[in-house]
Amino acid sequence: MLVGLVLSGMILALLALMRRRTYGFTIVWGMTMVSVAVAGLFVHIGDNFLALSPLRSWFLMILGLGVSFSSWYRIGYEPEQRATTHNGSFWFVMFVTSMMTVIVAQNVWLFMTSWELMTVTSFFLVVSHPEREGVIPAGFVYLVMSQVSALCILLGLLLMGLNLHSMNFSDWYQGGVNLPPHIKLEIFSLLATGFAIKSGIVPFHIWLPRAHPVAPAPVSSLMSGVMIKLGVFGIIQFVLIDLGPLYKGTALALLAFGAISGLLGVLYALMERDLKTFLAYSSIENMGIIFLGLGTMALGIDTHQPLWISLGLIASLLHSLNHAIFKTQLFLAAGAVEKHTHTLNMDHLGGLQRTIPFIATGFLVGSLAISGIPPFNGFISEWMTLRALLEITQYLRGFTAIFFMIMAFIMVLTASLALLGFVQAFGVTFLGQARAKRAQCEVPQTMRWPIGILAGLALLIGIYPNPLFGIMARTDPHVILAVPFSVTRSLHAPVIAGMLALIIGVLVVISRPWDVTIRPRWACGRESKPSMQWTSASFTKAVRTTFALIYRPHRRLERIGLYARDFPEKLVYKGGTTPFWERYIYGPSYRWVWMISRYSTKIQAGPVRLYLTYLLATIGLMLWFVH
Asked: Which of 13, 204, 470, 605 has its CA 20 to 30 A from that of 501?
């Protein structure tokens, strides 16, 4: 069955190369993935080469959902790009095939081959429009960081395989737990770094806000909704399940990186004016929340606490699914905005609720879900993560308890700032007056339906999440009988949804909106203009000044004119922020690499005997190292 899925992907890629339309087949292929994944949650599927465990089935289900809706959306998104669509379809199908093979691979060779194929195919999708400014540099940053990630993962998997005398993953489950602690720590360092880079965790995230915005919207939705979750899959499968208990400090490290990523991700999202870059930073924030769940699970494994393992696992898996749903929905809505207005700069938009009301409603639902507002799905998974952090503080004392209280506080602060960010994004983009004339026409139905169905899924999971808890309990064989259903059922999500609906209904009846009379806007006696509206920069100025120590904002005033110093004809004010990791880490590293590469060019030129000297010296060093 799994071989058939992989071969189907190869055939679809071949059809795309032959310039055949494959959208419909890709949708069916994605739904087949979902069906196989659901079956894999209850029965074992596969062999020693390709196999599905319940954990792998969960991530295959996320992939199938993302592929189905993205492919459906592409029918309306790309009709005018037929000259380039066929190549794009080929890379798209190969990208999905590689991700699927990563999930079901059962040995190191197949896993790493698929991982590299995933990187190469996604690189070509990122640079689909090389004529646009910044696309090629963004693609190269993504490629370099992906190669660093792959190197760390390969070294970690090889180290594990050498110590267990097997490169087959099915042999690692029993043997990995018994490895010496220092070997486990080395494997953890390599694998956690590699998978954290792929997940976009701070400070390894610099590729994410560059690559996701420049890619086409369906590709951005797949990269943000599915691809970065493969880092989460890798950490759960190879680090937490296969390695078993580790030093307690490793769990605290996962928690700390998760909290930092969540807070800094949302802080830098607030400073963005480009809608897709804003969503990309929001993905970093959500990956931080998922890592908080992973850290809780890791601490439970280290201290043999089944309750913490269950809470952490359920929180991270559920938020992975939820983030895939609402982030796919939001990126697809952003793509519709770009198609309708030909810009993603929020300060040039406004009033789109009147011209594309369906997309505006879809973006609003996605914003509520990702902000953790009940009764949508984001509330359930974020509450489970916070519940897990607070649960641990009841059993710990001293510094560790304070540490977890700080983690919980950072998560609440992160969720609050995320709500502020999406109020800004929706308000500036869709509400108010239009800052330019827009056509009064909706985007094609094939672009609207996927967004609408994803919004319905977000609401459905938020109201009735209990069936998912039972399914997620099957994903970890360590705790399959120890899941505390009393904790998950205490949410009473349907009751919360019913109460909210009742409150909103009462407020509507009391406020009587049908009796409201619309009057012209009052602007101190002057004509109201779109330039008087809030911009994204003015909306978040209070945040920028409050967190100035982190942002380190810079300002510059330019005087323009013949006698600019004393009599400027025009004053231009420019301001912004530069992330400290780019200023102090990646910037100096980049300059060092370029300096070394300039010196290395001198080595390339020279007589043959010089090359032979280099060769002998290299062999001598290798022999000395082996000895």
From this structure: 470
Nearest Cα neighbor of 228 from 369, 99, 113 is 99
- Specify which residues 526 forms β-bridges with: 523
> Scanning the structure block, which residue is given the tokens 């978040």?
540
Neighbours of 51 (CB within 10 A): 17
Question: Is the distance from CB of 150 to CB of 237 less than 8 angstroms?
Answer: no
* Buried b or exposed e, range 585-597, using 16+ CB within 10 angstroms: eeeeeeeeeeeee
Token pair for 109: 């060779």
**Contact present, 101 and 6 (Cβ < 8 Å):** yes
Tell me the residue type at 481.
Answer: L
What is the 8-class DSSP label of residue 566? Answer: T
Segment holding 557, helix H or strand E = strand 554-560
State pTM to two decimals. 0.90
403 alpha-carbon distance from chain centroid: 26
Pairing state between β 51-52 and 45-46: antiparallel
Could you tell me which residues come within 8 angstroms of residue 79 by beta carbon, excluding any fewer than 6 positions away? 444
Distances (CA, A) of 239 to 66, 242, 245, 251, 442: 26, 6, 9, 11, 47
Distance in angstroms (rounded) separating the CA atoms of residues 507 and 502? 9
What is residue 83's predicted lDDT score, i.e. its pLDDT? 47
**Interatomic CA distance for residues 387 and 488, integer angstroms:** 10
Higher per-residue pLDDT: 286 or 49: 286
Mean pLDDT (whole number) for 581-606:
81
Amino acid at 328: T
**What is the SS3 assignment for 480?**
coil
**Torsion sign, CA atoms 387, 389, 393, 396:** positive
**What does the chain come to in residues?**
627
User: Is residue 567 classed as helix, strand or coil in its secondary structure?
Assistant: strand
The pLDDT of 476-480, averaged and rounded, is 56
Q: Which of 83-97, 236-250, 409-423 has the highest mean pLDDT?
A: 409-423
Q: Cα–Cα distance between 122 and 95 in angstroms, integer?
A: 6
Most distant CA atoms of the chain, gap in Å: 92
User: Which of 166, 55, 149, 69 is closest to 103 using CA atoms?
Assistant: 55
- The span from the CA of 382 to the CA of 293, in Å, is 9
Q: What is the mean pLDDT of residues 506-519?
A: 82
Residue 573 bridge partners (DSSP): 557
Q: Alpha-carbon distance 325 to 360, whole Å? A: 17
Tokens 């000044």 sit on residue:
545
Q: Are strands 554-560 and 570-576 parallel, antiparallel or unpaired?
A: antiparallel
Report which of 490, 485, 463, 464 is spatially closest to residue 473, judged by C-alpha positions. 485
Burial of 515 (0-12, 13-18, 19+ CB in 10 A): exposed
- Between CA 266 and CA 330 the distance in angstroms is 16
Other CB atoms within 10 Å distance of the CB of residue 554: 10
Give the bridge partners for 46, in sequence order. Answer: 51
Strand partners, 45: 52
Please say whether the beta carbons of 305 and 312 come within 8 A: no
Could you write out the DSSP letters of every residue in 380-429? HHHHHHHHHHHHHHTT--HHHHHHHHHHHHHHHHHHHHHHHHHHHHHHHH
The alpha carbon of residue 163 and the mean position of all alpha carbons in its chain are separated, in whole angstroms, by 33
The residue whose two tokens read 């804003």 is 278
Local structure of 342: helix, strand or coil: coil
Distance separating alpha carbons of residues 436 and 513, to the nearest angstrom = 29
Angstrom distance (rounded) from CA 151 to CA 157:
10
Element (H, E) at 559: strand 554-560
